[in-house]
Design brief:
Number of strands: 10
CATH class of the largest domain: Alpha Beta
Largest sheet: 7 strands, parallel
Distance between the termini: 23 Å
Number of helices: 13
Strand content: 5-15%
GO molecular function: glyoxylate reductase (NADPH) activity; hydroxypyruvate reductase [NAD(P)H] activity; NAD binding
Number of domains: 2
InterPro entries: D-isomer_2-hydroxyacid_DH, D-isomer_DH_NAD-bd, NAD(P)-bd_dom_sf
Order of helices and strands: HEHEHEHHHEHEHEHEHEHEEHH
Structural class: alpha/beta
Pfam families: 2-Hacid_dh_C (PF02826)
Organism: Tessaracoccus rhinocerotis
Radius of gyration: 22 Å
Helix content: 25-40%
Keywords: NAD, Oxidoreductase
Shape: elongated
Length: 297
């Protein structure tokens, strides 16, 4: 297994003999130049999710087999999202803020009363692997689930209603983002879409910070009109003087929705299983195609 950034520094006799490369976060990217030093390399088995920084499209199109644990890593992200959506719908973050501020008994049934006819609605942007896992978890609750994804053709089978972005943002109590960070999705959550969110609703982002207009989001959050749970921002770590750090209506987490702690063991086990399948002459189960690579985060 390669240590982060160390591939080019390995002795040539190791590089020339390597047939399978097991990578982790921060490993030097495998490009055409490195492939010339690794003539026997046939497969890259990545222990993480996205492989965009692990290999280039050229080596993938050249026939290199690339396996990812994106599916395994999607589960803790979906768990995180489901938990945050549930807590948001219950008003936990708002009530905790009020309780800390007032430091006295709060009559929760009066303060946070919601009309019995109101149907909680969650908008899922992106029917990706993670988006689908989130929808599957949400289906067990009495919720209306909306989904937007121009590539999705099975929304009804997922248990969701397909809508356009303006309707999703205007209708949802919680909007959760699950699209890759590509040129196509850069800034897709515009100031206009954020303005459609009703007062008191929540935006959850575990995708990529680049998919949101950061200035527009910060302006909405500073106004106090909406809430946000952000596991990612752009840049990934906000500047020390960013208004996001001190806003009571913002929960910032340090890009930890994916596997951390004991969850990492599943990624390692999955990668080992892929290597074993390769060595046994069996097809690996989690290969990345050129098409998937082009649309991946």
């Amino acid at each position: 297994m390669a240590n982060p950034g160390s591939l080019g520094a390995l002795p040539n006799d190791i590089l020339t003999r390597a047939e399978v490369l097991v990578t982790g976060w921060g490993t030097q990217q495998v490009d055409l130049d490195l492939m010339q030093r690794m003539p026997n390399l046939r497969a890259v088995v990545h222990t993480g999710g996205s492989v965009r920084k692990v290999v280039t499209s050229e080596v993938l199109e050249g026939g290199l087999l690339v396996s990812t644990q994106a599916g395994t890593n999607a589960e803790p992200v979906a768990d995180y999202t489901h938990a945050m959506v549930t807590l948001s719908l219950k008003g936990v973050f708002r009530s905790a803020e009020d309780y800390r501020s007032e430091r006295k008994r709060i009559e929760v049934y009066d303060r946070y009363r919601v009309a019995a006819s109101h149907e909680p609605t969650v908008g899922v942007v992106g029917a990706s692997r993670i988006g689908r896992s989130v929808i599957a978890r949400l289906r067990s609750s009495r919720l209306r689930i909306l989904v937007y994804d121009p590539y999705c053709n099975d929304a009804e089978a997922l248990g969701a209603t397909e809508v356009d972005l303006p309707e999703l943002f205007a209708s949802s109590d919680v909007v959760t983002l699950h699209v890759p960070g590509t040129e196509e999705t850069k800034g897709m959550v515009t100031a206009e879409l954020l303005a459609l969110m009703r007062d008191g609703t929540t935006l959850v982002n575990t995708a990529r910070g680049s998919v949101v207009d950061g200035e527009a989001l910060e302006a909405e959050l500073v106004s106090g009109r909406i809430r946000a749970i952000l596991d990612v921002t752009d840049p990934l770590v906000p500047s020390p003087d960013s208004a996001l750090w001190d806003r009571p209506n913002v929960l910032l987490t340090p890009h930890m929705a994916g596997a951390v702690g004991p969850e990492l063991a599943a990624l390692g086990a999955g990668a080992v299983s892929e290597v074993q399948r390769y060595l046994a002459g069996k097809p690996m189960l989690h290969l990345v195609s050129a098409e998937k690579f082009a649309r991946s985060a």
